[in-house]
Amino acid sequence: MQRLSTFDVPARDRLAYLHDFVARHVAGLRFRPQDADNFAFDVSAYFLDAGTTVGTACYSAVLGERPKDLMAADGRQDYLMTIHTTDYEVAVAGKPPLSIKAGDITLLNEATSMAFALPNTLLKVVSLNEARLAALAPRIRQKAFHHIRVDAAGAGLLTGYADLLRSQAPEGEAGRRLAGNHIYDLAALVVQGATSANAEPVRASLGAARLELIKAEMLRQLTDPELTVTAIARRQGVTPRYIQRLFEQEGITFSEFLRDARLDLAYNALDLAGASTVSAIAFDAGFNDLSHFNRAFRQRFGATPSEVKAAALRRCQ
């Protein structure tokens, strides 16, 4: 991952560095701070595969544009997908500004001029290869700018998966390539329209992306002893049986994944040789039955919780 913030460069060079960073990693743009004396930014970019970048940008209020002279100089014609956390306005190809609501998705071909006004905002961005996206979603070429509302079919899954990649970047070339395939499939589904016919060719990516989001939510709520597949399904907008099928395709059940994740959490706590008791650690990890915890722990790690804790204490002496 590459990252640049206001405090990385002298004040007089900040805009030049920002322009260079964004151009090299995401898109060719020019910025003009609304308050030059107090302009702040923090931008990052992570590369999935050739032509595909996911990134985050936090800006104080700024005006931006992709003017024709810059378009002629860099020749870019790929798509820039953006999701903002605040409302903003964008004018495309010299037309009157459009109001974009927070959470909406926009897709803009970089061969098109634009200008935008951003308040203090967090911007989430994905750069997508035009030919690769068009092969999956021919409709993308019907216009240079696509505005997809936050409540459109498939939009939440695409946004959620992109967020997950930014926070938990996949490791290794194979993982990045697979994640890239998922992003293109999900973007194509949103552009083409999430009908059953359009969903069929990308069903594997839909399931994989949904499963990763489910796992991430489970890990965030790991310590809740009342966490159930029904509760997760309700929050994800799917059925419990659908979640069970996704896990079964990986050769594991929802309950087994939850149990193993909680055991790993407990093991790490025991291995720190802290003052907490075994029972307190078990309950803090989400277990509400100490006997079940002890049996499952020994089966998974080949040692009892007390033995792991004792070994950790000996290392600290």
Distance between the termini: 39 Å
The stretches of 5 or more residues where confidence is low (pLDDT under 50) are none
Order of the strands making up the biggest sheet: 1-3-4-11-6-9-12
The percentage of residues in β strands lies in 15-25%
Total tally of structural domains: 2
**Strand-and-helix sequence, N→C?**
EHEEEEHEEEEEEHEHHHHHHHHHH
What is the gyration radius calculated from CA atoms? Answer: 23 Å
Helix content: 40-55%
Q: What profile does the largest beta sheet have?
A: 7 strands, antiparallel
Number of strands: 12
Mean pLDDT: 89
CATH architecture of the largest domain: Sandwich
What global shape is seen? Answer: globular
Keywords: DNA-binding, Transcription, Transcription regulation
Pfam families: HTH_18
Protein name: AraC-like DNA-binding protein
InterPro entries: AraC_XylS_family_regulators, Homeodomain-like_sf, HTH_AraC, Tscrpt_reg_AraC-type_HTH
